[in-house]
Amino acid sequence: MLAILIGLTIGVGLPIQTSINSRLRDSVGSPFVASGASFTVGTLFLAVMTLLLEHSLLFSPQLFSSQPVWIWLGGFFGVIYLTGNILLFPKLGSVQTVIMPVLGQILMGLLVDDFGWFGSQRNPLTWVRGLGALLVLVGVICTVALSTWLANHHANAEAPATAGLWFWRLAGVFTGMLSATQTAINGHLGTVLHSSLKAALVSFFVGMVALMLIILLSRTKLQVTTPTGQHNPWWMWTGGLLGALYVLGNVVLVPLVGTGLAVVIVLVGLMAGSLLIDQFGWLGAKRHPMTLVQVVGLMIMIAGVALIRLF
């Protein structure tokens, strides 16, 4: 029960972080600079917490030779996932940009559990767990795609026509698979380091370095401006704190329930958080009251999680 509460909580926090980072992007003018600032804040926060609670940021250098290279790549995969969503949105539209990565996350989560990849404990795929994963995906489609279709009276209203559409769809599935891979890797890293905090710090630090390199290579300048008719709120710099708690929560969650269930629990929380932001217009977002279809979709996702968890 505690694992489910952790997963739902960090999942709800993810769309809030996205809203905060979107506001930061409006001021800095670059998604990469906004993400870089978010990762930097998150890294500093985790470093301070690690020093306060564990009194050291260090770990044995022998781990670099005794552990596989992939154990340090979780943060890098997170940056690819983040950058991929930025590139996918203008190609696929908002609906498919959500659904394709979700499909990849669920698929990879089940594969990691079934084969025990990335140091994960094996949890063989049964038809009941497969049905639960399918219900989660159906719930996502109801919550995102079907409600949008009903609102626009046209299934392709938000998906711009583009050549090679299936290439971008497969790219979306691939980035989602990398996101689930990051979850598995970070969970195993926490076990190796005997510290969830240090594992989250390593992941965030790697992501921060990768984003800084992207910013330097693209020669993007940091310039904070004030959007017309608005002011820059202090909270636009806090997205990294929520991102740090998200990564830390996943590090704690994976050893408890496995990668597959961790992914789907967080997805349910993510969808619930997105609906709450739309319902109440939090953080300056435009209000979009929840529909019956979205509520039904959320209930279907919860049923899917129950199947995977209980069977």
TrEMBL record:
Transmembrane helix as UniProt keyword: yes
Keywords: Membrane, Transmembrane, Transmembrane helix
Transmembrane region(s): 31-53, 69-89, 130-151, 166-185, 197-218, 234-254, 261-285, 291-310
Keyword Transmembrane helix among UniProt keywords: yes
Protein name per its UniProtKB record: DMT family transporter
